[in-house]
C-alpha cells in the first residue's frame, strides 16, 4: 500500500513509474533492464524478507550501475546509518517517503534541488554518510492522491487491502511505532476512504476490503462516520480490520450494519503481569467483553498472542494458552516474540544481555 502512494505522487508530478511486487510478480531484475530506470526503490521490513531486497539490490547495481538504489520503509528508517553503510545502497528515505522521494527524483532529473536540502534523506558523499534533518509528518493524509492501483494487477491479490491511517497512539513496548511514528496517528477522512472503496468497486469489482494498518478503529468519530457513509450509500461490501480491544456495543452495531465480518485484535498475553510489563494498557476482562460483543453481533473476533516475551514464566505462558478457551473467538494466532529495532523492548533485550 505504501508503494502505491509513492507511485501516485511521482506520477502526479510527471514521472514514469513501475511497481514490482515480489509476492505476486514472477519477473527478475534482468527483466527491467530495458526500462533503464534512473531510480530503483525498495520498501523493506526487518526480518526474513530483507534477504530479497539485499540480493536484488546487488543484482540491480551490477545490471544498472548508473541507477540510484534507494531503501525506505520501517527497517531503513530505524537503522539508517547501518543500512546505508552497505555498498549497494545509495540513499535511505526515513519515515513518510512521498515527498522525500519526489524531491530526490527531481534532483536526479534536473539537479536544481540539492541533496543536502532534501529533508528525511540519508546519503553518501565521498564515503561519508550524510543524514539530513527529519521531514515533518504530513499535516493531512487527504492531501495525497489516491493509490496508483492501475500500476498493479489487482485481480492477482487474494485480499485487496487499504491503508486508511498511519501510526498508533498507544505505547506497547514491543512495537516499532514509538520510534517510527513517534506516537503520532493520522487518518484519511471517512469520505476519502469511502471514495477509494467506490473506485475499487467501479474498476475492479471489489466486494471485500481488509483495512491493513495498525488500528483502524482508534479514531471512533471517523469509524462511525465511515460506517454511516457505507450504510447510506448502500455500498454492499464486507470488510475486516485490526483493532484494540475496548470497542463499545454502539460502535460494534454500526460496524456490523456496514458489512464488518471480522476484527483482529492484538491481545498478546493472558497474563496480567505480562500485559503490565509490555504496557499494553488493557485488562483480561476488556478482552472477554469485547470478544463477546463482537460475537453477539455476528462479527468474528480473532486474537493475536505472543510467547517468548522477556521475563515470561511458565505460569505466564499457561495463562496465555488458557485465554482462547475463555473467549468467544473464531481463532487465534500465536507468534514467537522477536525484538524489533526501535522498540523499547529491543533496548531492554540489549541492556539485559538477552541476545
Record the SSE blueprint.
Elements: H1 2-12, E1 39-43, H2 50-63, E2 68-72, H3 74-78, H4 80-84, E3 91-93, H5 98-110, E4 121-125, E5 128-131, E6 160-162, E7 165-167, H6 177-180, E8 185-187, H7 190-204, E9 208-211, H8 220-232, E10 238-243, H9 249-257, E11 260-268, H10 272-277, H11 284-296, E12 300-307, H12 314-326, E13 331-336, H13 344-351
Short description:
With 355 residues, the protein is α/β, with parallel strands linked by helices. Helices cover 36% and strands 18% of the residues. The longest helix is centred in the middle third of the chain and has 15 residues.
What do these coordinates show?
This protein has 355 residues and is α/β, with parallel strands linked by helices. The protein has helices spanning 2-12, 50-63, 74-78, 80-84, 98-110, 177-180, 190-204, 220-232, 249-257, 272-277, 284-296, 314-326, 344-351, and strands spanning 39-43, 68-72, 91-93, 121-125, 128-131, 160-162, 165-167, 185-187, 208-211, 238-243, 260-268, 300-307, 331-336. The strands form three sheets. It has a six-stranded parallel sheet. α1 crosses α5 and α7 (190-204) packs across α8 (220-232). It is globular and about 60 Å long. The two termini are 33 Å apart.
Amino acid at each position: 500500500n505504501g508503494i502505491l502512494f509513492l507511485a501516485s505522487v511521482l506520477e502526479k508530478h510527471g514521472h514514469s513509474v513501475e511497481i514490482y511486487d515480489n509476492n505476486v510478480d514472477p519477473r527478475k531484475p534482468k527483466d527491467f533492464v530495458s526500462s533503464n530506470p534512473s531510480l530503483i526503490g525498495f520498501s523493506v521490513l526487518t526480518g526474513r524478507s530483507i534477504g530479497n531486497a539485499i540480493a536484488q539490490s546487488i543484482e540491480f547495481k551490477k545490471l544498472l550501475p548508473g541507477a540510484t538504489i534507494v531503501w525506505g520503509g520501517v527497517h531503513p528508517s530505524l537503522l539508517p546509518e547501518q543500512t546505508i553503510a552497505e555498498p549497494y545502497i545509495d540513499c535511505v528515505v526515513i519515515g513518510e517517503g512521498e515527498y522525500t522521494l519526489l524531491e530526490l527524483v527531481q534532483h536526479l532529473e534536473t539537479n536544481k534541488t540539492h541533496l543536502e536540502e532534501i529533508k528525511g534523506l540519508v546519503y553518501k558523499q565521498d564515503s561519508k554518510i550524510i543524514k539530513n534533518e527529519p521531514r515533518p509528518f504530513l499535516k493531512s493524509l487527504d492531501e495525497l492522491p489516491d493509490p496508483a492501483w492501475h500500476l498493479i494487477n489487482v485481480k492477482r491479490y487474494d485480499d485487496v487491502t487499504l491503508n486508511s491511517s498511519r501510526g498508533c497512539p498507544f505505547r506497547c513496548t514491543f512495537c516499532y511505532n514509538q520510534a517510527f511514528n513517534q506516537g503520532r496517528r493520522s487518518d484519511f477522512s471517512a469520505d476519502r476512504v469511502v471514495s477509494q472503496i467506490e473506485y475499487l468497486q467501479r474498476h475492479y469489482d471489489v466486494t471485500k476490503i481488509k483495512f491493513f494498518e495498525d488500528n483502524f478503529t482508534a479514531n471512533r468519530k471517523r469509524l462511525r462516520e465511515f460506517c454511516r457513509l457505507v450504510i447510506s450509500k448502500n455500498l454492499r461490501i464486507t470488510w475486516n480490520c485490526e483493532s484494540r480491544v475496548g470497542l463499545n456495543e454502539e460502535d460494534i452495531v454500526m460496524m456490523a450494519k456496514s458489512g464488518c465480518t471480522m476484527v483482529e485484535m492484538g491481545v498478546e498475553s493472558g497474563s496480567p503481569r505480562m500485559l503490565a510489563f509490555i504496557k499494553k494498557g488493557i485488562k483480561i476482562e476488556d478482552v472477554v467483553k469485547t470478544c463477546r460483543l463482537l460475537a453477539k453481533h455476528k462479527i468474528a473476533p480473532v486474537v493475536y498472542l505472543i510467547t517468548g516475551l522477556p521475563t515470561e514464566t511458565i505460569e505466564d505462558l499457561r495463562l496465555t494458552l488458557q485465554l482462547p478457551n475463555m473467549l468467544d473467538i473464531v481463532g487465534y494466532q500465536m507468534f514467537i516474540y522477536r525484538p524489533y529495532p526501535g522498540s523499547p523492548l529491543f533496548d531492554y533485550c540489549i541492556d539485559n544481555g538477552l541476545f
